[in-house]
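hey m, so remember when u said the tokens were messed up on ur end? i reran from scratch. heres the input so u can diff it against urs
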Amino acid sequence: MTPQPNKRTLIFIITLVLVTAFTLNSCKKKIRGCMDPMSTNYNAKATEDDGSCSYMSIGDNFQGGKIAYILVSGDPGYDAKIRHGLIVAPTDQGPTIQWFNGTNVVTGAVATTLGSGNANTSAIVSAQSTGSYAAKICSDLVLGGYSDWYLPSLTELNKVFLNRAAIGVFADDGYWSSSEKGPNTAWVQYFYTSGSQSANDKSYKYSLRAVRSF
């Protein structure tokens, strides 16, 4: 017959197991850092928050330019767990320039909404090919280590206009958007005080400011 451990032995064994488990757990290395995924310095490996979290603001230098807009609930692409938005180039992309490439063609880049500028730009470049015109200059731009710049849609450009005071200097002029109105016209956002918009002839020359998404 196998001898059974007495009560005192069982208590000793249980105590030893608990103490060993506690000791091993307490010896695990703690990693201190920011544990908020909405911050700019989130540390996915952190096991203890150190209070160092920092958050982005309009006008901050970030990923090659300045933060121009941060998506809010209801915006296309909004994610409650990860911040997304628009980054605008810190300066204009050269002198004023025309929208078309010398000939009026329908590009299909008619979207005006937030989040549509990149697709608009691709459609314009595909339709108009090589040359020196607004969408192509933005598409070819390499700035701050990033090459995914594009000509903003009308709504995206309006977000830049609304936050222009925090971003920096803009020309007192109209800026081309990537939103096409028709075969001969495309939308312009004016950076005057009123911030009006109008569809103008693609041959006209206006200022140019590229954006990228994050």
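this time it looks ok to me. The chain has two domains: 7-49, 63-213. if urs says something different then somethings off w ur setup not the seq
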